[in-house]
């Protein structure tokens, strides 16, 4: 099992954000987490990553409690693409990606040909090999996001958490990245990503998790989970869920636009 969460609750001070969550994510599963702004998606991710260590309940990643591991050991289990970040790396893109391989090196060791090859392969996989020698702080926000995804791949962890990975990407890059993410899950990685677009969850998730008012509102096949009733309840927008191509694809249409 990639991630096992049992009776997880978490509060900032006396403000409870997550309440008694229970779920398991098997290996090779692509999970989309849906829920309104401020519901606690990033907070849940930070608990899983061990960055919010003062939770109650239990979280195991690949059978391990990450709070008990060193930063290096954690990096072998899970990689993380945060929602936003300050562009502090005044390095070439290839060096930013290479940093992901740091957990494998001895103290003060430098990356060797294997790490370099993996970093280039990750850039190629995301379709941005041409950016390898550009300065990270001088590429666009969307390009930086793609670099961070390549960096997560180069880290070689079995589980990846992505906090709204496509929020800064144009339509083409969104489709390319989400379809690459789905392929990575098919190859055995477990990927948990948050999204604000239920259509993405239909297209690019094996399982959809819905958080509402601190609780796990639903978790399962996106076609079972994403209904017009649930979307209306979560976002206070009336939608119709339409089925296309013999129900291979479903899309949400806001009723206010078609009435
Ligand atoms: N460090 C913090 N200290 C106190 N409260 C926090 C902190 N971080 C987040 N919160 C609060 O906890 C709640 C959950 O925040 P979180 O960022 O997890 O939501 P989210 O679902 O990821 O939101 P969004 O979709 O807008 O990114 C929010 O009400 C937020 O204001």
UniProtKB/TrEMBL annotation:
Residues 3-238 form the ABC transporter domain. It comes from the Bacteria. This is ABC transporter ATP-binding protein. InterPro entries: AAA+_ATPase (IPR003593), ABC_transporter-like_ATP-bd (IPR003439), ABC_transporter-like_CS (IPR017871), Metal_Ion_Import_ABC (IPR050153), P-loop_NTPase (IPR027417). GO terms for molecular function: ATP binding; ATP hydrolysis activity. Pfam families: ABC_tran. SUPFAM superfamilies: P-loop containing nucleoside triphosphate hydrolases. Keywords: ATP-binding, Nucleotide-binding, Transport.
